[in-house]
Amino acid sequence: MRLLTITRLTFLEAARRKIALAALLLGVAFLVLYATGFYFIATETGLPGEGLQSSQLIRNQVFGFFTNAGMYAVNFLTIAMGALVSADTLAGEIGSGTIQTLATKPARRAEIVLGKWLGFALLIGAYLAFMFSGLMLIVYSIARYSVPNVFLGVALIYFECVLIMTLTLACSSRFSTLATGGIVFGMYGLAFIGGFVEQVGAIFRNQGVVNVGIISSLILPSEALFRRAAYEMTSPLGQAAAAVGMPSGPMLVISIPSPMMIVYGAFYLLVMLGIAIWVFQRRDL
Amino acid sequence: MPSFAIETHHLRKEFDDNIAVRGLTLEVKQGEVFGFLGPNGAGKTTSIKMLLGLVSPTAGQAQLLGAPLGDRATRARMGFLPEHFRFHDWLKAGEFLTLHGQLYDMATDRLRRRVTELLELVGLAPFREKQLHTFSKGMLQRVGLAQALLNEPALVFLDEPTSGLDPVGRRLVRDIIRDLRAQGTTVFLNSHLLSEIEITCDRVAFIKHGEVVQVSDLNTLIAEGEATSVAIRATGLTPEIIAGLSQWSQETRLDGPQLMLTITDEAALPTLTRYLVERGAQVYSVIPQKLSLEDLFIRIVGTEGVL
Question: Domain containing B109: what range?
Fold first, then answer.
């Protein structure tokens, strides 16, 4: 099948151009650093020992907080990996001319886009699975802390990473690699700041400020999806704290994105994928 | 089976305010080797890209192998070697051909056989397991040519197929084109190397400002009714004999050991030779000077650069 041939090409590229290896090494470096930091936090900061139920509650809060921070870093690394490989894919192939032998084959242009998309989605999935397993393993082996709702949470983060990759692919179908990088990075930054503003608005119970954050999430729902994921992976106590306006992690999950944001994210992803195909089909190569 | 492999009518491409191809009207017969000539910027590459579906025309129509432009089933019967032969250079030569063959949906057995055959044909069999980034320009062009022939196409577009090749490589390409012609494949050849076109092509189109200005049959490049010069090498030529040549020749002059005549009809050559022999001249050679493709090119396209 032609679509899967393109997917295979995408895998081979990630492997041969050492993109996968670089991402993996960076990921391992992060995990080692994180494990070291987490170890010292768990053993040398005067946290109450296991045993008592009340001290276990405090421990869970603290570990939950730092696990949340680790998840954000893993989330960011995965997004960066996904965006870096997909930013150059259409723009780069058009620029260098390698697309010409592909696009003159009997494959539909839509098959080229979807084949690449599938390849990146699988790569991102494998990377996220590796990094998240590493993180969970570190946290569990050092502190015996297990993250609640981990599958739902990881699924949401995966969804977020694929969404940004799809946005990047859509930009790459029209703009140069550099412009694509600029646009996606800018939009990601906007969503990040917007999410931050939304949390501050929630602390001060200012609906206007919260709305600014919500609008930024509509422009790019990445941050909102991460916060929803982080909320899902927070202990029930943390969730209760969030409900009354207390931050329960470094990413300040106070204003909890509604499940509608997930529906919106799915819609957003499909539209971006549609744009990528539509633009690429009509483009002169 | 349609009689034309390529048929275009006023194919036009505009980029913003720039007209790349003004109106290409062209007919390429099934099974011929067709040369596409023109100065830089005449719209050759854009024309090829339109035919291949890489660039969509602003106006006009075209049919390839009897189907309208962009037909996917037709693309399965076409091959293409792009001008700059940029490929995914992290692929090994064998992988590169296999992946491209898979995009043609070729059956695994046939594909495996073709990859081996073609690597053999272009002289790259020992480099099957080498990544393309280790290849020289010439090797890349060879593997690109193999890629263009994977599906045993009915129509092949070769855009500057010898630009990166040494004389041995050029000879190879020439032989491959000859074999393709023998198999009945139509070859559309875009090349700057006029000698290349002269040797390999049946017909050639000259394009200028995105329009075909002339199509010439290369086998009869001496245009009918036009003056042709003839070089005669002979001894024992007396002034009388030379004077007597004026009945066939408009202009006669001695150029070193050669006698140069200008005749209007090739049919005069046997009579003229008999005349010389009967009058006792020793004739070594009588050679009509074919108009070279370069002369024709400059005459048709002009010397002014079209940039």
Answer: 4-222
Please indicate whether, in this complex, the C-beta atoms of B52 and A104 are within 8 angstroms of each other. Answer: yes
Please tell me which of the candidates B52, B105, B131 has its beta carbon nearest to residue A2: B105
**Which run of H or E residues covers position A65?**
helix A53-87
What CATH number has the domain bearing residue B182?
A: 3.40.50.300
Question: Do B165 and B233 belong together in one domain?
Answer: no
What tens digit of pLDDT does each residue of B71-81 get?
889 999 999 99
The shortest C-alpha distance from B256 to chain A (Å) reads 54
Number of domains within chain B = 2
Q: B136 and B257: one domain?
A: no
Average the pLDDT over B108-129 and give the result. 94
Look at A100 and B78 and tell me if their CB atoms are within 8 Å.
no
Residues A102-146 pLDDT 10s: 999 998 999 999 999 999 999 999 999 999 999 999 999 988 888
Query: Least CB-CB distance to B87: which of A98, A108, A284?
Result: A98
Is there a single domain that holds both residue B200 and residue B273? Answer: no
Q: Does A103 touch chain B (CB under 8 A)?
A: yes
Instruction: Count CA atoms closer than 13 A to B200's CA, side-chain side.
Output: 31
CB contact under 8 A, B99 and A98: no
pTM for this predicted structure: 0.85
For residues B213 and B249, membership in a common domain is answered with no
